[in-house]
Amino acid sequence: MKKIIILKHNNGRLGNQLWNYISVYAFCLEKKYLCLNYSFFKYDKYFNIKDKNLLYRSFLWCYRLSRLIKLNGFMERIYNRCVSLIIKFRPQKIVNSGGENSNNGIFYLPPTPAGSAADLSALEKITGNEKMYFNYQAGWPFRNPVGIEKYREQIKKYFLPKLAIRQPTEKLINSLKDRYGHIVGVHLRQGDYKNRFMDGELYFTENQIAEILKQYLANFNRTAAETCFIICSDGPINRSAFENLNIALAPGEVMNDLHLLALTDIIIGSDSTFGSFASYYGNIPHIVFTKPEIDWPYYKNKNNYFINKYSTVTKLN
Fold this sequence. Notes:
It contains twelve helices and eleven strands. It is α/β, with parallel strands linked by helices. It folds into two domains: about 5-160; about 165-300, Rossmann fold. Helix 10 crosses helix 11 (about 275-280). The longest helix has 18 residues, at about 15-30. It starts with a strand and ends in an 18-residue tail after the last helix.
């Protein structure tokens, strides 16, 4: 069986890596290839992904051991060095994402129609090689919007979080559903969005978000009494900013929060790959924070996941 090995990601966090991974995985399902993602070692522990060869399993064992004995970054440096050597000495086996001739920097994979002649030319290299490496270059993602819909059920099963993650999040969501008729996941990305990424353009304060949540209730004819907002954030939350709203705080662990968002009825949140992936996995709408205000009519009658024109960082269209 032909092997597609994801060799490198764009140094993004979980959401960024998952969008790249599922796009390549859907391509492999379409072509009946084996998909291996060597670059996913940081987040592999959250899933029961069985597609691992002996080399990758050995590396995972060494990576976890290095973390255990406080040699943080040691195995990452070894891995990055190996990647650099493969790219240098096996260029004929490398498929690079994006490029100056691609469609807005996006490399579309089958069954999604190719975005450019350059993409088609790169894909033709795969035919004559038993093993190919997919190299995700910064800012130029692999995407497969047709494939991830076609193979949605296979993808959900493949990326099912481990039971130790599912159990507490499902217990929390079920307890809230016993008390409230409508559960809204709220994703607030603070951290780099506050001042580093795009000069804070995508950052919203807690007071701004509280106002957005009140607008949501008004625009979607929901009452505050029947609605609970579960807030997931990578920073501390001041509960007093959400006066007169029913709120619950997510555990704060990245995979638990992602799974929790996917279990809600709808997501409102930052323009990020994290919230958009939870929307895809849970097949629920994702309302994206925008300035100066949210285009509420755009979201009316949206009941499932859809490609959101306001989700700019996910780059699906």
